Please model this.
Amino acid sequence: MFLTGFSQGGHASYAAHRLIENDPSIPWKLTGTAGIAGPLDLAGTGLPARLEGKSRFSSLYPNWIALSYSRVYGHPLNDVIREPWASNSVALFAGNNDGAPIISALPKDPRELLAESATTAILHSEPHWFKDRLAENSILDWQPHIPVRAWNVTRDDDVPRSDILALAEAAQAHGFNFSAADLGAFNHDESILAAAPQVLRWFERLRESR
Model:
């Protein structure tokens, strides 16, 4: 069994891998996991990177995640998102819009979108339910037993490479099965096309070596 995913799917693949290895009641046996431009540290690097506004999705991402988290964890959305965007979020993210109309409906500067308390918590390490829940869902302090490889690119404005590279350095220092492969000068969307053939070849090598 192999796991792979791109962007949010990369994070989901890492999270599923960690869950499978940590829960002995799960019968699945993994051979390898490959994340493509997937985030690891959602609270520590992901949110601060969004506030820099380098990506055209810099407001879309936190609004989308905040709406989901407010539903799952039972907190008011306007704790994270300012009005009028908080009230408009349900209709905006109802599934009828692709990226373009959502981006045009949100402020270009994500600091105009986020509530002051959320921005302060992100930038100054103060407690806030949204940041705390993101930290819980981050993939940190993880030592996989089955090989995991993260493919990243140098022109990615959507997912910071810093947390992936930090985990790769920790893996090298402590001898656990995580490595990072640099695809070169591609952007976030291009990384899936560049990585997919390499992921397949890596999976085939893992299967043959069993």
